Amino acid sequence: MNRRVTSNDVAQAAGVSRATVSYVLNGRAGQSISTATQDRVLAAARSLGYTPSTAARTLRRGRSDLVLMLLPPEPLGRALAIMIDAASEEVERQGLRLVAHRLPAQGGAPSLVQSLAPAALILLTPLPEPELAALAASGIKVASLHQALEDPLAPDLGIGACQVQHLAAAGHRRIGVAVPPESGYAWRVDVRLAAIADACSRLRLPQPDVARLGLDAGEAAAVVDRWRAGPQPVTAACAFDDEHAFALLAGLAAHGLSAPEDLAVIGAEDIPLASLAVPPLTTVRMDARELGERFARMAVAPLGGAQDPQGSGASHSGQLAEPDLPPVRLVRRASA
């Protein structure tokens, strides 16, 4: 069995010291190594098939080449998948690797960080204060949209406000909200409901009528029936995402009703099927790719990797500034 090629083998082949090999292969700045010597070391490493030891490098640096992205305990939707892909591409451009991990509801972020020793951490899910304190004590660089923001509604990215503003501009005053019942969505549901309630207050509308709704036509039909009953019926609904908007459209159809005549419906995300709904779905689009790229830049910039471009929204504290959040955009179709 062939033994592993070491940096000492590269040093002997190139006729240099192991320290020189380390400086060249690890890209350390501030060393006066000639271009010819660097080329000789790199050529020797290629010819020998040398690959650096990840474990040794992690021990030496105190961190690995990984950027850890912690995901909420919810199904992987399209927007989240796009964010992961975009962040992964951006991180890899800096010579690092992204690892995405769905954090269970019971938490455990500090122990996971300790075992992986990541170079940086991207939080797409909120953490309890004790875990945040433990991460801060570890000195790890954290990019987060959910903590240390002046505006607690910022994590909603303006989606709920955009939905309410559009419905109010169309003359609707009594608004319903359809959100998933699963506990895994709790943090995003809470932020969305707070954002919608805030928008209603600002526009002097009654507080919204909230329905916890699964992706089931029968459940949706019952919600539609309840909303339309009473002296002040709901005339328009904000759906948590486009899938829940589809459920509401199915609930309307079960009663022989349609949008927007009987209930205006607006979704969120603008998935590819939104334009194929009956009627085509009015929704709010968020640039998930841009958000993923910004998270990655926030995470790696403090490591001396990516430089934060002007206007990317990264602050010195490693947080994303609210005014520079990727904008959401209303996609006006026929359902609302």
From TrEMBL:
Among Pfam families, the record links this protein to: LacI (PF00356), Peripla_BP_3 (PF13377)
List every stretch annotated Disordered: 303-336
Q: Does the keyword Isomerase apply?
A: no
In this chain, composition skew of type Polar residues spans 309-318
HTH lacI-type domain boundaries: 5-61
Q: Does the keyword Transmembrane apply?
A: no
Q: Which UniProt keywords apply?
A: DNA-binding, Transcription, Transcription regulation
Q: What is this protein called?
A: LacI family transcriptional regulator
